[in-house]
């Protein structure tokens, strides 16, 4: 049996409304955390977070750049062990502990 278009549209609207409400609940706490971190960040920290770099593999120089907050995102690295190592550096060895 075919559903009338109006029922399908109503269901879609209900799902969209529920999803939007859930996102807003999550965003309230997330926004507070973001604001707290942003207040602690220097201009250099903010610029560093916008920097995306291709991975240099297991380079100590690259890892030091992560420690110094000069890299916010790593591109073109598929080695999960190395990515986990970089993420651990970002979380545990940087001033603010912001993940890559």
Helical stretch tally: 4
| Radius of gyration computed on alpha carbons | 20 Å
Distance between the termini: 50 Å
Tell me the overall shape. extended
Largest β-sheet summary:
2 strands, parallel
Point out poorly predicted stretches: none
Strand order of the largest sheet: 1-2
The helical percent reads: 55-70%
N-to-C SSE string, H for helix and E for strand:
HHEHEH
The overall average pLDDT, rounded, is 85
Structural class: mainly alpha
Query: What portion of residues belong to β-strands?
Result: 5-15%
According to DSSP, the number of beta strands is 2
Describe the protein's architecture and organization.
There is one protein chain. The protein has four helices and two strands, in the order ααβαβα. The chain has helices spanning 5-40, 43-49, 60-67, 80-92; strands at residues 52-54, 73-75. The radius of gyration is 20 Å and the shape is extended.
Short summary:
This protein is mainly alpha-helical and 100 residues long.
Please write out the topology.
Layout: H1 5-40, H2 43-49, E1 52-54, H3 60-67, E2 73-75, H4 80-92
Parallel strand pairs: 1-2
